[in-house]
């Protein structure tokens, strides 16, 4: 196989991998030098000339002419008689340059050259791919669903790069079909052997923060700062925002007229409920805002333990806790305080309390069992016979007695 033919066979890699010509030639030279080292022991005295315009190459070996019988290193030296077969007027001490044809390396060496080239090009691609995605960790990226697996969705971008969206990084309501475009952030790039694995996430707080940057011009321009984001993916999120310009209402700018600006973000996150609040260094005010939509009566803060007792009227308790306890949990994560709800006052004899207001003490599924038979307030449960409740619900007697104890304490306190 001639040099030109071998170069032609390599062109497919350049076309497939979109490697620039200079890089391809550098890889070619490196591969050929390795082959020369194996064949001759050293490549120091070889010149490799690659012509990228013509797509061909030449290999020249340089040796010093020595007297017949005095050759010690056949790779570095050539006898006078051998040199004169190349040019008749060579003399001892002169330099001889002789072209080396690939066929002289042997058939096995040529096959090894090709394999080595493939390996080097893949290594180059993987290194570039790793650097490329390492630089955009934390940025939003869009790719197309290639196929859906039980534990992950495999995506492919416009350049054919494979991206993995693990199940745990998907919003619970996410449902993907082949061909769908998916947005998320590049969470990490991991090396699996020599091949980089690109990991995407849609559950990261960073994804929501970047969506704010992408969808809200004032955030993108730096006029509004996203101070902190906390999420229960697909359920609820709280975002604290601030502005150094007193003329800008950061919450209003983020939400938009009738929620127009934030609507796209909510839709992207599977209708995740997003509370946007004004950030402040006033801890009491910050906690009060974080518990929105509940109206807080007062707050008692213990800085040593980072706990806060939050006093609320009875009708505000369920709002502060939220469905499944999400609101109070996120408020605690946002502010960095462990929040304890304290109910103010006690209901009069003729007053009643919704069972949902006890969701911090009674499991939601138990409250749901009572609701199935039309019991949705504390007094409606207390007025029932225990045995009758056991018969009408799927609850154990022990569970019902415990619920009644909690409800009675509310009215007795």
UniProtKB/TrEMBL annotation:
Q: What does this protein do?
A: Participates in both transcription termination and antitermination.
Q: Name one GO biological process term.
A: DNA-templated transcription termination
**UniProt keyword list:** Cytoplasm, Elongation factor, Protein biosynthesis, RNA-binding, Transcription, Transcription antitermination, Transcription regulation, Transcription termination
Which source organism does the UniProt entry give? Flavobacterium subsaxonicum WB 4.1-42 = DSM 21790
What protein family is recorded?
A: Belongs to the NusA family.
Residue ranges occupied by any Transcription factor NusA N-terminal domain in the UniProt entry: 6-125
Cite the NusA-like second KH domain residue spans from the record: 285-345
Recorded protein name is Transcription termination/antitermination protein NusA
Q: What is its main location?
A: cytoplasm
* Subunit text: Monomer. Binds directly to the core enzyme of the DNA-dependent RNA polymerase and to nascent RNA.
Q: What Pfam families does its record include?
A: KH_NusA_1st (PF13184), KH_NusA_2nd (PF26594), NusA_N (PF08529)
The UniProt entry, under NCBIfam families, shows: NusA
